[in-house]
Amino acid sequence: MHLSRLALAIATMASLLAAPASAETIDGAYRGSYVCEKTQATKNILRVPLDLAVNGTDVRFGRPLFNLQGTRVTGTEMASGTIDAAGKTHLNSEYAVLGFAVRGTYDGTIGAHGGTLTGTQSWQWPDGSPGSRTCVAAFVPAPRAQRPAPPEH
Asked: pTM of the full predicted structure?
């Protein structure tokens, strides 16, 4: 009986030591870069900043939309989706450009130190032909704003 209690105590201690001290939280703001392939209508590849936020199981990102020359911001792509306990993420977006609808789907992984997304934007050109391009994003936790130190006396 004494031996089985000792064995149970050892097993309990071993499981406590093996468990992480605290789970890493991924809630918060992230910043990074978003890059998409060049299309037949655009002047170059797209490379823009990305802001992403995780709140519980909800994930959202925003990035600027530009005119075809890439010289003027014309709007914002907003994507929203979910994240599971393992950090697997899926987001969707819908927006209009030059009078036609664009749909984005993105999948990836987010952790406490950042993450990546890979996605596809799909649309129909005004002539009815389909179009698509691949996009990728990489991001890290956004710096937290620091309050100024109180003045020294």
From this structure: 0.76
